[in-house]
Amino acid sequence: SAVKSSFLQHSAAAEQRLDVQWDATTASNDGGQWDQVCGSPVFQASESFRGDFRNNRTPPLQISDILTHVVEFAKDQHGSRFIQQKLERASVKEKQMLFEEVLANAHALMVDVFGNYVIQKFFEFGTPEQKAALGRSLKGNVMNLALQMYGCRVIQKAMESIDESLQMEILREMEGHVLKCVKDQNGNHVVQKVIEKVKPERLQFIINTFTKNGPDTITQLSMHPYGCRVIQRVLEHCSEEQKRPVLEALHANMSTLIVDQYGNYVVQHVIEHGSNQDRDRIVQEVAGNVLRYAQHKFASNVIEKCLICAGGHHKTLIGRFRGIFPQPPILLMMKDQFANYVVQKMLDIADPVYRKKMMYAIKPHIPVLRKYSYGKHIITKLEKYFQKQQYNHYDMSGMQGCSHSVMRVQ
C-alpha cells in the first residue's frame, strides 16, 4: 500500500540517523550485526511505524498495513501497544486478520515481554471462538507458562475468559504441581487466580494437597511469602467445608503464626473475614499473651486488628492492658516502639467511657512519657482527644491537669 511504501522510505532516513549514533567499537567488532538489524522486517516495519506514528507524518496506520508483520509488531514495545489499541475497537473481520498470525505464533508471544499483552488483549476483546482457540493453545504447556514471568499473566487472563470445560483442562495439567506453583514467584499468581475464578467444587485437589499431611503444610505455606497469599484466597473463595480443615490447622499453630512476618497477615485475614467463632479463638490467644504480642513487630499488628474487628472483645483486651501491677502493662507499652501503636489504636476504638478510663490510667505517667520518643506519640494522641472532648463540652472534671501537661509538651 501507499502507506507501507511511505514507511519503508522513512526507514532509510531512520537508518541514516541511527548510523551516526552507532557505536564505532560495537560496529567494528561485529560488522554484520548492523546489516542484520537494518535489513530486518522489525527495523523496516516497526522502526518506520514508530517514527511515523509519533510524528503523524503519514495517514494513520491501519491493521491491514501490518499484515505479515503482526508478530514483529507484537514483540515491539510500540507495535504491541498499537495492536492492543486497535483490538479494542476492531471489527470482527479485522480481529480475524490479526488473529491468524497471532495464533500461529501464540507460544512465542505468550512468553514475550511485549507479545504477552497482545495475547491478553485477545482474551479480553477477541471473539468467543478466538478466546477458545487461544485457550486450547495453552494445553500441553500450562506449567511452563505458569512458572514464566509473562506466561503466568496469560494464564491468569485466560482463566477470566474461557469456559468451564477449558478451565478444567488447564487445571488437570496443574494437578501434582500445586505446591511448586504456590511457592513460585510467578506460579502463585496463577493459583490465586484459579481459586478466584473456578467453582469451589472444582478446587478440591488444591485443598487436598494442602491438608493431606496434616496441619504442617498449611502452617508452612502461611509463613511463606507467596504461600500466605494463596491461603488468604482459599479463605475468601472456598466453601465452608473446604475452609474448615485449613482454619483448624491455623488455630493449631496460632502462636507461631501471630509472630511470623507472613503468617501474621493470614491471622489478620481470619480476624477480619472469618466467623465469630474463629475470631473469638484468636482473641483468646492474644488476650493470654497480650504484653508479649503487643511488643512484637508483627504480632502487634494482629492485636490492632483484634481491637478493630473483635467487637465487644476490645473491652476485655483493654482491661488486660490496664492491669493492676506496680508497673502496669500499659506503661510498658507506651514506651515500646511497637506497642505504643497498640495503645494509640486502643484510644481510637474505645467508647467514650473506656477512653476516659484509659486517660486517667495514663495521666500519672505523662512526665515519664516525655522522655521517650515513642511515648511522645501517645501524648500527641491524648492531646487530640482532650481537645476534642473540650470542644464537645464533655465532662472533663479531674482531667484538666493532664490536658495542660500535654499542651506543655508542644
Walkthrough of the structure:
The chain is an all-alpha fold. It is built from 31 helices and no strands. 75% of the residues lie in helices and 0% in strands. The protein has helices at 2-21, 24-29, 31-39, 41-55, 70-74, 77-89, 92-104, 106-110, 115-125, 128-137, 142-146, 151-161, 164-174, 178-182, 187-197, 204-211, 215-222, 227-237, 240-252, 254-258, 263-273, 276-288, 290-294, 299-309, 313-322, 329-334, 339-349, 352-362, 366-369, 373-391, 400-409. It holds the Pfam family PUF. InterPro entries: ARM-like, ARM-type_fold, PUM-HD, Pumilio_RNA-bd, Pumilio_RNA-bd_rpt.
Notable characteristics:
31 helices; disordered C terminus; 0% strand; mainly alpha; 75% helix; differentiation; 410 residues
Category from helices, strands and their pairing? mainly alpha
The unreliable regions are 1-40, 393-410
Strand fraction equals under 5%
Number of strands: 0
Protein name: PUM-HD domain-containing protein
Pumilio repeats: 65-100, 101-136, 137-172, 173-208, 209-248, 249-284, 323-360
Organism: Heligmosomoides polygyrus (Parasitic roundworm)
Keywords: Cytoplasm, Developmental protein, Differentiation, Repeat, RNA-binding
